Amino acid sequence: MQVGLFMHGVKALVEQAVVEAFASSVTAREMPGNGAQRKRRARESGSQSRGTTKKKKRSSAEVAAMTARLYETIDSQPGQTMGVLARAMDCEPKDLRVSIRKLMAGGRVKKAGERMHTTYFPMDTTGSVLTES
Fold first, then answer.
1. I need a surface site. Which of 14, 36, 73, 87 has the fewest CB within 10 A?
2. What is the pTM of this model?
3. Which residues are registered as beta bridge partners of 112?
4. Are residue 85 and residue 110 in the same domain, yes or no?
5. Does the CA dihedral 91-55-58-105 come out positive or negative?
6. Total count of domains within the chain
7. Residues 71 and 29 placed together within one structural domain of the fold
8. What is the 3-state secondary structure (H, E, C) of the chain?
9. Residue 98 belongs to domain spanning
């Protein structure tokens, strides 16, 4: 008898929880500010999502100057990671992506390691790694 009453109470609680969960999911979809509406409002207002700001594209001269500075930094500090090189140049590692690709494509820099442990070394004109004398 007591087990029957207990099961009846559990069944009533489960039914109530299902009804409340359904009701909250329906109202969440109808509430303004869900994902699609928020993205549309952000596009219309011209703001960027997630608080990021879009940087303007750098000119060729700025990229060339950054590439030259990066090569000088790698030459003076061979075997360093991008994070160390960026701190030495007082910029962010992501700001150096284009420059490091240009240096590697031109054969002026060689990388060793993978991912977070990638280090960069200057190359001489014959294609071998420069060593300090």
1. 36
2. 0.57
3. 119
4. yes
5. positive
6. 2
7. no
8. CHHHHHHHHHHHHHHHHHHHHHHHHHHHHHCCCCHHHHHHHHHHHCCCHHHCCCCCCCCHHHHHHHHHHHHHHHHHCCCECHHHHHHHHCCCHHHHHHHHHHHHHCCCEEEECCHHHCEEEEECCCCCECCCC
9. 60-122
The lowest-confidence range among 8-17, 32-41, 94-103 is 32-41
Determine the distance from the C-alpha atom of residue 49 to the mean position of all C-alpha atoms in its chain, rounded to a whole number.
14
CB 127 within 8 A of CB 117: no
> What digits encode the pLDDT tens for the residues 18-49?
888 887 776 655 555 566 766 776 677 665 55
One-letter amino acid of 113: G
Residues in the chain: 133
Both tokens of 10, joined, read: 């559990």
Residue type, 108: R
Could you tell me if 43 and 71 lie in one domain? no
- 81: domain CATH number? 1.10.10.10
